[in-house]
Amino acid sequence: MTTDQIPGVPAYFFDQTLRSGSMGFGWLEAQTEPMVGWPTLPLGSITHGGAGLVMPWVDPSAGVVGVFCSVADRYRSSTNPGDVRHQADLFANLVTASTVD
């Protein structure tokens, strides 16, 4: 479920085009290129952003499993700053940063 099933296939993620989608079966592998509104996780990490704005992630290098739950009804758009931002990326980045020596 966590192995990239579409290596090298570009992906369109909200307002951003990525060189590789890096999708397993339901899980997104950590990217080397930043994704707008998505956590910056160490390589080898996986995450899944569900439609209900619950974002679980696993960082095996730090031994962290996290889940962010939100009641926001839509994702942030990089072209519309008025959109609600669910903050999952900032929370996951905070947790990840606190585990790095």
Based on the model shown, name its key terms.
101 residues; globular; alpha+beta; two-stranded antiparallel ribbon; four-stranded antiparallel beta sheet
Walk me through what this model shows:
The protein is of the alpha+beta class. It has a domain at 30-98. It contains one helix and six strands; from the N terminus they run E-E-E-E-E-E-H. The strands form two sheets. A four-stranded antiparallel beta sheet has the order 3-4-5-6, with helices on one face. The protein has a two-stranded antiparallel ribbon with strand order 1-2. The model has no long low-confidence stretch (mean pLDDT 77).
The gross shape turns out to be globular
For the biggest β-sheet, the strand order reads: 3-4-5-6
**Spatial separation of the terminal alpha carbons:** 29 Å
- Let me know the largest β-sheet: 4 strands, antiparallel
Radius of gyration over C-alpha positions, nearest whole angstrom: 13 Å
Specify the helix fraction band: 10-25%
Percentage of residues in DSSP E strands:
15-25%
Order of helices and strands: EEEEEEH
Mean pLDDT figure:
77
Total count of helical runs of at least 4 residues: 1
The total beta strand count reads 6
Unreliable parts: none
What structural class should be given to the helix and strand makeup? alpha+beta
| Quaternary form | single chain
Give a short overview.
The chain is about 10% helix and about 20% strand.
